[in-house]
Structure formats: C-alpha cells, structure tokens
Specification:
The protein is mostly helical. The two termini are 29 Å apart. Helix content is 55%, strand content 2%. It is built from 15 helices and three strands. Strand 2 and strand 3 form a beta hairpin.
C-alpha cells in the first residue's frame, strides 16, 4: 500500500507540473515555489519516473519569469536564492544556475550583513539562510564573505548565551532552539560548512562547544515518551517543550542534529544514548499528542519518513530503525494522504512536492540519499 500511494502522489506531481498553468502562478523559491518542485522532480527521475515533460515545463516557466523580470524576491523561501540552491549543478538549468550565482554573490553578502545587523539568525528566513547558499556553491572564492557571516553568527550566539533569536531586534518574545528557526538549525549548517573546502574545520571549536552546551539542555530518557526531551523555546526565563514529532521542530529533528554532531565529532557514548532516545521518540504512537495531523513535509508524516532514513544515513546503518516503526509511520503517511484527498498546493514544505520528496527519500539506498541543503539537517 505504501509503495502504491507514493507512486500515486508522485504521478500527481508529475501530471500537475506537465502543464504550465499552475506553475505560472507560483514564486520561484525553495520552500513555497518552483525551486522545491524542480528539486523533487529530479529525485523522481533518479527513481526511474518519467519527468521529462514536467521538467521541460518547469524550466520554461523559470526562464520566462526571469526574462520578464517577475522575480522580485532574492530570499530562500520564495526567491532567487531558493531557486538557485534547488537546481542541481548538472541539469538543463545548469547555465541558469551559474548565471544566477554570479548575480547573487553580492546580494547574499549584503543580505547576510543586513540580517546580522537586525539580529535575525533564522535558518530559513534570516542571516543563517545564506549558509545554505554557500553550502550549495562550495566556492572557495567566497570564503571571505562566508567567514564574515559565520563569525557574525558565532559572535551573536555567544552574546546571547548560546541561543538564537529568529525575529529582528525589538520584536523578540522568545528564544528559539528549533531546526527550522533556531539554534539547532544554525548549528547544523555551521557544522556542515565546517567540513567543506571553505572552512577546513575553522569552526570546530565553536561547533564542539555549542554541541556540549546543547547536550546540557537534553532531558534524561524518562522524558522520551512525554515530548519533553529538548526545549522548543524559552520565554520569560522558562523553557517550553513541544510533543510534536516533525522536521521543523520537536524532539525528533532536534535529536537528529545532535546525533549528526555526535557522530562527526566522535562522541561514541553520546551517540549510543542519542540512538536510544531517537527510537523512544519514534515509538510515540499517539498521533494527536504528537501533533502528526497531515502528510506534508514540514509538520507531517513525509518529513518524519525523510528524517527516519536520514538517521540511518548519518549512522551508515541500513537497518537501525526496526521494521515495526517503519511500518507504523508508513501506514500513518498512507492514512493521512488518503485523508487529504486534495493535496494543494504543489509546494515543498506544505504541499505535494514535499510529500513526494519525503516518501521517495525514505526508500532510497544510503549511497543514493539526496545530499540537499534546504532541509538543513
């Protein structure tokens, strides 16, 4: 049943993108527009699906939008930065990607400085979103701009005593620890950059220090089934926890960032502990309590399935997650997809392409798992 429903949703995505009408109404960004859709179609192609016509129409719409000057945003979610990082280096839009990169380098540098000055480090919308662009470029000629950004992020996190504000100065009501908008997302991106040709481990001390500080916030295993393992935010001096199991925030994605850091920094004992906690979190089967209410990538079942396979990729262990847990979450995805008979919109975080991306990724061999950047982890 899972294989059938994944194929059906993939076919829906391909069918809806095989005509230009719906595409023309979308922005070009990674999370809410054409960029994330195009990235997903490339994954469909790797899985042997015929996406030639769909890709041709996406490419035509992108080129026409750029020629007409319709793209007014440069941001990751809905603009040119998102489109650029979503285009594979080797594809029909490869020349467009190279041209956009040349145009964007100066903008991204200015964007980083502006959002650093605002004190907004949000991984999807603020200064840290530029880290995703630099990860995708992997161009040593940009090392100076990247280093300025990373050191600005590090300084602000230190000034804020190891936390991240996702909002501009003057609008802050809480501290954020999540993957999508807070500390763990920033830390994940800096750690990934630390392993690239840019950084050459320049930021290892910072990553190690923040990893150890993050571990101090982690509750013991007795909280694993309560949804109170890792804080989502802090307001007025009090930590707030969420029982949500999702990509965007909650215990599962938080633990996976810590797991990745533990493996890369070589903390074997912590790695064992985190593996146990992750399995405990995945064993929460009260969907109402865990707020798993939709099939989408951001808050729903597709994002969970993506994360489950990501865990095995990080560990390089094909069968780490027991079959019964895979069966439960696949069945959950099937039920929720059936519940949402109309899977609007086409977008990545809360639409059809994200469902396809998450479910298809979960079935891939470790060596074929997509090394994307927009999912942060």
């Amino acid at each position: 049943m899972f294989e059938t429903i994944v194929r059906d949703v993939s076919d829906e995505l391909i069918h809806r993108t095989s005509t230009k009408l719906e595409l023309e109404s979308l922005n070009v960004g990674a999370y809410s527009g054409i960029g994330g859709i195009y990235m997903t179609l490339q994954l469909c192609r790797k899985n042997g699906l015929d996406v030639d016509l769909a890709c041709e129409h996406v490419e035509t719409v992108v080129i026409e939008k750029l020629k007409r000057g319709e793209v007014n945003s440069f941001k990751l979610a809905d603009g040119l930065m998102g489109l650029t990082v979503s285009i594979p280096h080797e594809c029909s839009l490869g020349n467009i990607k190279r041209d956009l990169t040349l145009q964007l380098n100066k903008y991204v540098s200015d964007f980083s400085k502006e959002y650093l000055s605002r004190g907004n480090l949000d991984p999807l919308h603020g200064a840290s979103s530029a880290l995703i662009y630099y990860l995708d470029c992997n161009d040593v000629s940009l090392s100076k701009d990247l280093d300025f950004l990373v050191r600005g992020i590090i300084d602000q996190i230190k000034e804020n005593n190891g936390v991240v504000y996702a909002l501009d100065k003057g609008k802050r009501d809480s501290l954020n620890f999540s993957v999508s908008h807070g500390l763990l997302g920033v830390l994940s991106l800096v750690a990934r950059l630390n392993e690239t040709v840019y950084a050459k481990t320049l930021y290892t001390n910072f990553v190690t220090q923040q990893f150890e500080l993050a571990l101090e916030l982690l509750m013991d295993s007795s909280y694993a089934l309560k949804g109170e393992l890792y804080p989502a935010s802090k307001r007025n001096g009090q930590y707030y926890y969420s029982p949500r199991i999702a990509w965007c925030y909650g215990d599962l994605s938080s633990l996976i960032v810590l797991l990745r850091l533990s493996v890369s920094l070589k903390y074997p004992q912590k790695t064992r502990e985190l593996k146990e906690l992750i399995l405990n979190v995945l064993s929460r089967q009260d969907l109402a309590y865990s707020k798993v209410e939709d099939p989408f990538f951001c808050h729903g079942a597709a994002g969970i399935l993506f994360l489950m396979r990501k865990i095995e990729v990080i560990l390089n262990e094909n069968n780490f997650i027991p079959h019964d847990l895979w069966h439960f979450w696949q069945r959950t995805a099937v039920d929720l997809i059936k519940k949402y008979k109309v899977l609007n919109p086409l977008s990545f975080l809360d639409g059809v392409s994200g469902i396809v991306y998450g479910t298809l990724s979960s079935k891939l061999e470790i060596e074929s798992f997509p090394d994307d950047h927009i999912t942060v982890i």
